[in-house]
Design brief:
The chain has ten helices and five strands, in the order H-H-H-H-H-E-H-E-E-E-H-H-E-H-H. By secondary structure, the protein is α/β, with parallel strands linked by helices. The structure holds zinc ion. Zinc ion binds next to loops.
Length: about 280
């Protein structure tokens, strides 16, 4: 029942009995096969050999094409395309990979300067009894620093504490400006401190930046360096691990909001001048 129905659905071919006939015939020598091909073009042996030929031919062509294209020219041309896009470098005698690697390693950092106004856009930071917040004072100092550097012809990015731009941030330097506690700690809780970012790539430059700021800021403001109170919050400052590893970076606690409050709020220009002097020391060395 099933067999006859199946054959009925095949309109173009031989009667249903033809196929079983071929299958049952035992002899498979080439002459017989050729004879069958003539008699029965749609038969299995013909299809099998044609299929084999076609498959082998296609396989040969594909193999040839892969041999011609794959190892060298495909890889090379895609790298060249990427180079052209990324580096806009039209001609080179060096191998593509070496060129691309060397280019990314030596590409200079941009000349802009990043200034983070501590806590800005995130929280208040320290809050004093009169309602003054560290965040607003940090922003006031950072804005003054930005203005002074802009007046000198520099491009300054004024950044929030958790600014989106910090991820992979590239600049000639990054400085985050903070102020210390409003609480009375002891009579020695006065002055400033600076900590450097210590990634493998920027450690030396960040140390140099830190030295410049420490020296110039102390000289300009007359504030003492508050040795021994650099905290993990400074050393492991979050932005240090977000920025491009080559951007020199440091964080300053520019004064204590308790004992240095009047100086910070009444002589803010000098605070900013001290920071600018430190940044210029780094830039000009
Ligand atoms: Zn802070």
């Amino acid at each position: 029942m099933n067999a006859s129905e199946d054959f009925d659905t095949i309109p173009q071919d031989q009667p249903g009995t033809a196929e079983p006939d071929f299958e049952e015939k035992p002899k498979r020598q080439p002459p017989k096969t050729q004879a069958r091909q003539k008699n029965d073009p749609a038969g299995n042996p013909f299809t099998f050999w044609r299929g084999m030929q076609t498959t082998l031919a296609v396989a040969f062509v594909v193999a040839t094409l892969f041999t011609l294209w794959t190892p060298g020219s495909l890889v090379e041309s895609s790298l060249e395309a990427r180079m052209a896009q990324a580096l806009q470098s039209a001609s080179s005698d060096l191998p593509a990979i070496a060129e691309a690697t060397a280019e990314s390693a030596i590409s200079p950092l941009p000349s802009n300067i990043g200034i983070v106004a501590g806590h800005y856009g995130y929280d208040s930071g320290a809050v004093c009894s009169n309602g003054a917040t560290e965040a607003e004072l940090n922003l006031e100092i950072a804005t003054l620093v930005q203005k002074k550097l802009t007046d000198l012809g520099y491009t300054v990015d004024l950044l929030e504490e958790f600014d989106d731009r910090l991820e992979g941030y590239r600049a000639s330097m990054l400085l985050s400006i903070h102020l210390d506690s409003c609480q009375y700690i002891n009579d020695q809780a006065t002055g400033f401190k600076v900590a450097a970012a210590l990634s493998d790539q920027n450690a030396a430059a960040s140390q140099k930046l830190t030295s410049c700021i420490s020296e110039q800021y102390g000289e300009t403001t007359g504030l003492a360096y508050h040795a021994g109170s650099v905290t993990d919050d400074m050393t492991y400052y979050h932005a240090f691990s977000e920025i491009d590893g080559r951007t020199p970076a440091a964080i300053i606690e520019a004064g204590f909001l308790n004992m240095d409050y009047r100086f910070i709020t009444e002589d803010t220009e000098r605070i900013a001048d001290g920071i600018v002097a430190g940044l210029l020391c780094f830039l000009n060395n």
